[in-house]
Amino acid sequence: MTTSVDALRARLAEITDLTRTAGLLSWDQQTMMPPRGSGARAEEMATLQRVLHERATHPELGRLLDAAGVEVDVADLDDVDAALVRVGRRDHEKAVRVPADLSADLARAAAHGHEAWTRAREADDFGAFLPSLERNLELAGRYAACFPEAATPYDALLDDYEPGATAAELDARFGEIRAGLVPLIAAIAHREPREEGPLRDDYPADAQRAFVWRVISALGADDAAWRLDESVHPFSAGLAQGDIRVTTRCRPGHLGPALFSTIHEFGHGLYEHNVAPELDRTPLADGASLGIHESQSRLWENIIGRSEPFCRWLLPRAAEAFPDALDGVEVAAFHAAANRVAPSLIRVEADEATYPLHIVLRFGLERDLLEGRLAARDLPAAWNAGMADLLGVEVESDRHGVLQDVHWAEGAIGYFPTYLLGSAISAQLWQSLAADVPDVEARIAAGDFAPVRDWLREHVHRHGRKLLPGELLERATGRPLDVAPYLDYLRDKYARLYDLDSDAVAAEA
């Protein structure tokens, strides 16, 4: 006998299939599609989103959710069927608030916006991108208006990326992080600058791509389920557990951007790859939130990828791939180069210490744009002033300034703060992981990454969306979000690298 839960599963599986198909079209647009396909792709995305919206808002889905809710104990956090009802109801109730035409318009504008951004970035012409930005902001405002109970329009958008989070809450946490980082960055600035030489040499793009694939293969990617491509802005797409797409961007003469961005995207892909199999083809086969998702990419990119044990493992393999660039380079020099602190223009190439300030800037600007305190046409000037204030750098062009990120082009307003939230979460998770696996650094230095993968699979990945982000973090670490481990990690790390008194730096914060 077919139960309501069985019928609900079948309907949600169809919605998941359609969502993944939309993801595949988006991946293709950013990696393979010829430029002249952009107009047709925008209409295809709009049509698919309209079909998705019809499925997600259909009254029969609401009836099935109610009936299935009677059959299960919805309060049981570990039961898959109960989680299907909880998450399915949240998604359904949000979807029915949004008109079908608006849903399609958002998808169409995102596809058009991506192509407009790509052209504008290449031409260093913000004016060419401005109409798309204004359109995305208009649509985002209309979407936020569908949720008038939110304290601010920004909160309505943020909830899609980080359920339950508010801008006021993030303001407080980010303020604490900023206060802790300012004296650290100032103390580093008074030390002798570290050389970036080992990462800047003869690194041909094709050889970089082959090398970074070799690196993430050692970390846990395999060509039976993963593929690596190039895109203007690196990203990942988990289309299924056995279909993980990651991209990179190679800069000839500089190994760092491709290396660390690819490890970053590997962290995202591993999350999607390791979701429990019983969650496949359901809305649960995704991350608990983007903050949790970003914690995985930031953990692999920085806490592991820039660590001394990882550099010890990596350097011989890098020297084998690039003997002319790395012959005779010592681990200490390579490690110092990977962790050089220097305020810079580009977020995805920023060091760990200054990276949070890039997010603080974007977080403030997108709130001001959405809530009418900043006109889109004035964004470059506001961006440049913010970069000077927060990082002390002069923006040389819009291409290296306001046009460097793809998020606003695709209507992803509210995404940026999850990077910093994820950075804080990554340190809290690592603290618990290191306590549970005391020899983890020695294992990493030996090239044995299984203990890290296994711990993350057990405590984070397998749950998918079964748990809300706060519930997942408390289970994994025994406490709610706390930014102290993140600040302690950064102070301790850079005290060693730059010969600082970490206690004195903390006292100044």
Major beta-sheet overview = 3 strands, mixed
Unreliable residue runs? none
Major sheet: order of its strands? 1-3-2
Structural class, by secondary structure, is mainly alpha
The percentage of residues in β strands lies in: under 5%
Q: What's the number of helices?
A: 22
The CA-CA distance between the termini, in Å, is 63 Å
Question: Nearest-angstrom radius of gyration?
Answer: 23 Å
The rough form would be described as globular
The helix content is 55-70%
- Number of β-strand runs: 3
Nearest-integer average pLDDT: 96
Element-level helix/strand string: HHHHHHHHHEEEHHHHHHHHHHHHH
Provide keyphrases for this structure.
509 residues, 3-stranded mixed sheet, 63% helix, 3% strand
Describe the structure.
With about 500 residues, this protein is mainly alpha-helical. It is built from 22 helices and three strands. A three-stranded mixed beta sheet has the order 1-3-2, with helices on both faces. A hairpin with a 2-residue loop joins β2 and β3. α1 packs antiparallel against α2 and α12 crosses α14. The model has no long low-confidence stretch (mean pLDDT about 95).
List the helices and strands and how they pair.
Elements: H1 4-31, H2 38-57, H3 59-71, H4 80-95, H5 100-123, H6 126-144, H7 153-161, H8 167-189, H9 205-219, E1 226-230, E2 236-240, E3 243-248, H10 256-273, H11 290-304, H12 308-321, H13 323-326, H14 331-338, H15 355-370, H16 379-391, H17 417-436, H18 440-445, H19 450-459, H20 469-477, H21 484-498, H22 502-508
